[in-house]
Amino acid sequence: MNSPDSPDVPTCSAKGCRDAAVWVLAWNNPKLHTPERRKTWLACEEHREHLSQFLGVRGFLKDVVKLGDWVQPEGSERA
Question: Cα dihedral sign for 17, 18, 21, 26?
Fold first, then answer.
């Protein structure tokens, strides 16, 4: 288990998981968000595939990026 040591460490978005996040899953619900908007879920190694599939089957998943490489796209912030 890869539990974070500090409350400042980003944690996985999977229900009940408190492991340190390694991945950013950028997504967008086209019925609710402008095309450039990106919402994010964080994922540990164990839950990356599951969360990606959940978003992917709905057509929401836009990108999967290592947490250290993530840069919020311009225009994706909430107005």
Answer: positive
